[in-house]
Amino acid sequence: MIPRRNPGNFFYMLILNLLNKYWPLLAAAFLAILQGYHYGIGDLATYVPFVWHHIDPQYFSGDLLTRTLGDHPVYIWHLVAFLARLMDIQTVFFVLFIAQVLLLAMAYRYFFRTFFSTGDPGWIVMLLILVTPINAAAMGRYGLNPYLYFHPGALAQAALLFGYCLLDRDRWLAGSAVLGAIFLFHPFTALYGALLLGFRILIDFRHQPLSLLLMSMALFLLVSAPSWGPFLYHKIGAGEIAFDKALWLELVRGRMKFSFFISQWIPDRFIHLLLASAGILAYHRHPAFRRLLPVLLTVATALLVMALGDLFSIKFILQLQLARNSFLLFPVIAGLVIHHIMHMPPGQLRSWRALLLLVPLILMLQTPVGDKTNPARWLLLSMALLGTIWIVWQAMPHWRRFYVGLIWALALVMCGTLVVNRLTETGRFVDETATSPWEQLQIFCERELPVDAVVMTPIHREGFRSLSKRSIFGSFKDGAPHNYSNKTIFEWWERMQALGVTLPFRRDRFPGLYRENAEKVARQNGIRYVVYERGSQSPDESWEGILYENEGFRIVDLDALNPGKEKDADQVDE
């Protein structure tokens, strides 16, 4: 008699085996999650309203922001809206955030094991380094938690790595399909995917069947067609719109200078890129160099085109933000160095090559010491330095274990200090969204104001729409999507000018300008509700139109007259 298998025991053993095999990946992902999580601010301040509008068109129907939707041929927010119909939207974004972190961890592990080694713990070092950055080197955000919230750009990074690894493993059709699919949710990253595919085809042209390469290109174009097809149709079919290019350049130079204009970069961005490029070229004899050469060529081509767009002020090229994925150089150089370290004989430790032990950390961390440097971070850097000296001096046979342990300590201390700081400042372990008073104000507005209400909010504050589900007059953050819309960019700018904003942008003046002009502009535009920050931005304390207030904000109803002022007016008439 054959004994029956216990399903519970089977799944228990399966989970145990998965944890035993992938615990470093899960641990690195957990550390990345502990770096922080946001909802409704940053880029999500504009993405969440798109989702609500897809769920129910009555939300933000009169908001200037939703008029830019036709200029963004992506489909990710349709999917998020579908999921948000099934469960709470904040739960949806948090689940997607967790999935995003895990996918990035899996993608970087797959990348290291594809191009370097499957038998050493180098991929663990790679993942741990990717949870330590404070600021990403050069252009673009990268790491296992680059945005601190769900972002299609982070999802696209994982897809980019997976797609290119599939090409390297001779799975051309699958790789081309993955790279083409990136266009459906993040075209900026997809452009790098197109370049990677093109350069890989050029390099492997003589080693692959022509039919396979042609099929790969055709599949890439077919999968991405739902994005570039409507975009071309929109551009070709759009009528002539009056467009002041000189003014547009001034606006985007003030708002997006590092992303749009290579001439606006600070020197350290060039230094980091040159160091990474030189480091990669120094490994030209490495077995993986030829297979990774398309990455170097892709970044160089993108930056060259970006420089030409800057030099000749070509609007379309500037809008592509071609430097945002140049971070691809850093995982490559880090992988090369880590692989070299893991295979270095102990006898070579007492040499200049031992300095390579710190290279990944130096390259991946742009600002390990900053204005908020605390004793824990100084201890962290001291540990790294002393640990390296100990490894080099002792040349011990088991030094690799010590090195991997040092990187674990680095990641634990770095993420631990972030958690402690967050608990001290906000009382929250993971979620550090907007301040509580800001959230409470939004919840009140969602509960009490009409769905079609338009609210005047401080222009320097972001994310009001996320929980309130109410339209606003505009904010400085809104300028990002308007940069891509010929229909709305100048209307947005007129609204900012009405509130006193001038060129060049002086963000430190925004609170004062809003305080001076908010009520007047609201009345001129028929806006009934105005939000003020408590203290310097509050109206007269005797104002009777206060609908709600907390320790941080108050919202007033301009239709409610001050009784004292009304009485004075009646006396004058008598």
Kindly describe this structure.
This protein is mostly helical and 574 residues long. It folds into two domains: 295 residues, no CATH class; 136 residues, no CATH class. The chain is 59% helix and 3% strand. It contains 24 helices and five strands. A five-stranded mixed beta sheet has the order 2-1-3-5-4, with helices on both faces. Helix 1 crosses helix 4. The longest helix has 28 residues. The C terminus is likely disordered.
What is the number of beta strands? 5
Shape: globular
Roughly how much helix do the residues carry, as a percent range?
A: 55-70%
Rg for CA atoms: 27 Å
Biggest beta-sheet profile: 5 strands, mixed
Count of folded domains? 2
Strand order of the largest sheet: 2-1-3-5-4
**Mean pLDDT across every amino acid position:** 85
Classify the beta-strand content into a percent band: under 5%
Class from secondary-structure proportions: mainly alpha
- The poorly predicted ranges are 366-373, 563-574
**Euclidean distance between termini CA atoms:** 107 Å
**What is the assembly state of the chains in this entry?**
single chain
Per DSSP, the total helix count is 24
The SSE order reads HHHHHHHHHHHHHHHHHHHEHEHHHEEEH
